[in-house]
Amino acid sequence: MQDLPKNKKIILFDGVCNLCNGAVQFIIKHDKKDTFRFVALQSEIGIEICNYIGVDQTKIDSIILYNPGVAYYYKSSAVIEIAKELGGFYSLISVFKIFPEKLRNYIYDYIAKNRYKWYGKKESCMIPTPELKAKFL
């Protein structure tokens, strides 16, 4: 497994999804503690990480938050954990933990299933600007 940055949490996302790319841009803008690094699920390292943690990325329609050596989260749990890390107002999203994960993921899956129809899809993964390049693996 390629050396991953120390003390960083890695967000694996659908690199061709407009909604996902918008979420990545939002997280970068609000990641004041520089906690996150980003990897497209379709990339070589994205596939490598999925294989390492035992997730079949061809069957997962989700964002994954990977905290190397600690844990990984996907679907609604990943969204809640990311929001907690952003802090402030966004940490209030953790209130959704009161709902069963199955219910949260049902809603998440509904949005994920329709994301291309609602938000569109890119032909290829986003190319980060030179300023943002350090945030991507």
Provide the structure class. alpha+beta
- Our count of helices gives 4
Overall geometric form = globular
How are helices and strands ordered from N to C?
EHEHEEHH
Query: What's the total number of strands?
Result: 4
Low-confidence stretches: none
In percent, how helical is the residue content?
25-40%
Radius of gyration: 14 Å
Note the main sheet.
Answer: 4 strands, mixed
- Average predicted local confidence, pLDDT: 88
Strand content: 5-15%
Could you give the order of strands across the largest sheet?
2-1-3-4
**Distance separating the two termini:** 13 Å
Short description:
The chain has 137 residues and is of the alpha+beta class. It has helices spanning 18-30, 44-53, 76-86, 101-119, and strands at residues 9-13, 36-40, 64-67, 71-74. It is 39% helix and 13% strand.
What does this molecule look like?
There is one protein chain. The chain is α+β, with helices and mostly antiparallel strands and 137 residues long. It is 39% helix and 13% strand. The protein contains 4 helices and 4 strands; from the N terminus they run E-H-E-H-E-E-H-H. It has helices at residues 18-30, 44-53, 76-86, 101-119, and strands spanning 9-13, 36-40, 64-67, 71-74. It has a 4-stranded mixed beta sheet with strand order 2-1-3-4, sandwiched between helices. The longest helix has 19 residues, at 101-119. 26% of the residues are buried.
